[in-house]
Amino acid sequence: MSDNAQKLYYPPESLAKNAAVPGMEAYQALVKQAETDYEGYWANHARKLLDWKKPFTKVLDESNAPFFKWFDDGELNVSYNCIDRQVNNGLGDKVAIIFEADDGQVTKVTYKDLLSRVSKMANALKSVGVAKGDRVVIYLPMSIEGIVAMQACARIGATHSVVFGGFSAQSLRDRIESSSAAALITSDGQFRGGKALPLKPIADEALAMGGCESIKKVLVVKRTGTEVNMTAGRDVWLNDILAEQPETCEPEWVGAEHPLFLLYTSGSTGKPKGVQHSSGGYLLHAMLTMQYTFDIKPDDVFWCTADIGWVTGHTYIAYGPLACGATQVVFEGVPTYPDAGRFWKMIQNHKVSVFYTAPTAIRSLIKAADANEAVHPDRYDMSSLRILGSVGEPINPAAWEWYYENIGGSRCPIVDTFWQTETGGHMITPLPGATPMVPGSCTLPFPGIQAAVVDETGLEQPWGQGGILVVKRPWPSMIRTVWGDPERFKTSYYPADFQGKYYLAGDGAIRDIDTGYFTITGRIDDVLNVSGHRMGTMEIESALVAHEKVAEAAVVGRPDDTTGEAIVAFVVLKGPRPSEADAPAVIKELSAWVAKEIGPIAKPKDIRFGENLPKTRSGKIMRRLLRQLAKGEEITQDTSTLENPAILDQLKG
Ligand code: PRX
């Protein structure tokens, strides 16, 4: 045992006894199965968990690595697997979705209702000419319609690309252009925190920018009732055309590799990449992780607080819970409206038993509870909870412990799930009835996932020594390619450094010297994680330099108590460096500009101006220095290679 041996938290026996993976022996047995017969392990699960129209005979096809295929000759339909089969299995009257609107109004949708709504939406899409293989961009708030639209695309074999409702016109335009989508589904607006915010006007702006000529129809959901412009021949009110649609729609059977969706995410260079996911392998992992990580049971009420605009909202709202026939809460609003007790009140009211949220939300709710006893979780009855989850960023031990004690009543395991847009589902995570937990560690790989920590040459690191996180074997729910850019897929995820053998996650990790548990140490590329949202520093820099006043910009992250990381921008203006009196106005202008170019989530928290940026004599920006400056640290390192050391004083902030 090392001196710094960590305290372990054990799953309660009552939970472990009935869990899908009941204890570490059961976990090890699964790991062993997967090691002994990798393809057999995944094939067994795929046969057991999914309904196939045409059974697969091939499991993993590595002939065109790293473009792996899983279950390639099998045929299925994802929407059928999520909805029809629940109805066929007698769950038609079970509530699939408990939707709570921003204003608190609750709507319940049964599996039978969902089948009819999805079928109508699928028919509506067909009626406007959307066909199998087309891309459909979905720009909707958290809503029943959002899930229905995703499922409807899956039903007809169209590939959806959901764009988060907080993204700007420019971001929406870029994603439409990149995917050359045939149709766009949006709404007049969205309610958040008691306010009606526009969506359709932003979509109009995006479509007017050029590059979106592929869009033939815009289907508009009426949500806020705000007046919007409707372009004749192009824009249609969904509510109108849905009314005319038949309530049944035969699912389109597709090959297991058929692209279910694209989801754009930030990388270290260039524009966001369209991560392409499959149908069969993706859904398999969505279901398997619902069962093993969340131990989902027929009478559970599951609530994942993510937005459908992110991958978490895909796998653990739109697909996983439905494929398991679960009841889930879907929430339109924000955790702080009408007050910061909203989440706890909803857990109480809907008797949520499995709750999945992000560390950022937890940290901000801790602050709120500390400041105002009225919104403290101990004011609410949350005895229905049995499992808690965390996702999107590292959870700091203090937040973990607060979550464990105050939300979980010290009886609910916390599954700290490490995964990514590219991985489709959980990769490294505790299993609630098996894994002893350590706050801040995502513990051990999901059974069947072969994660490792290696050095730059691909050599596995001994426990206790940090390195690069990789996955050694392809897995069913992995990214298939970067849409329209297979080369970028290869260089980003299967770099030559590891002879193209290992999937590169882009994160650093270290394994505990005693337990072998993984702790994620953060991104090793220029990707930031702000409130669990992933952003490329280059993207923000490009947005800044697109402003007429900006000559040069460099963006770095700095640790932040609430948002995990915060964006700090160092900017050189074309004109003189602004005086202290003038700076606030320019900062405001640039912030608003970034929000308009990318979305409010990309706004820098701190903008500093210099006459130049710290560069080496060869002109390379010294980002390491900028990171230190951003943190307010004294610069102790050698700055003799710096072309212009005086700049450092200007950028101190
Ligand atoms: O850095 C890791 C961090 O989030 C990145 C993936 O971001 P995204 O594709 O947006 O997906 C987020 C939701 C799955 C990872 O590369 N990350 C995600 N989960 C964790 C995490 N870091 C530490 N612990 C986690 N549990």
From TrEMBL:
N6-acetyllysine: modified positions: K620
Cofactor: Mg(2+)
Record-linked CDD domains: ACS (cd05966)
Cellular component, GO, one term: cytosol
Catalytic activity: acetate + ATP + CoA = acetyl-CoA + AMP + diphosphate
Residue numbers binding CoA: R192, G193, G194, K195, T312, S531
This enzyme's EC code(s): 6.2.1.1
The Acetyl-coenzyme A synthetase N-terminal domain, residue ranges: 27-82
InterPro entries linked: Ac_CoA_lig, ACAS_N, AMP-bd_C, AMP-bd_C_sf, AMP-binding_CS, AMP-dep_synth/lig_dom, ANL_N_sf
UniProt-listed Pfam families: ACAS_N, AMP-binding, AMP-binding_C
Record's comment on post-translational modification: Acetylated. Deacetylation by the SIR2-homolog deacetylase activates the enzyme.
Keywords in alphabetical order: Acetylation, ATP-binding, Ligase, Magnesium, Metal-binding, Nucleotide-binding
Ranges where the AMP-binding enzyme C-terminal domain occurs: 539-620
GO BP field: acetyl-CoA biosynthetic process from acetate
Family under the similarity heading: Belongs to the ATP-dependent AMP-binding enzyme family.
Protein name: Acetyl-coenzyme A synthetase
Organism from which the protein derives: Denitromonas halophila
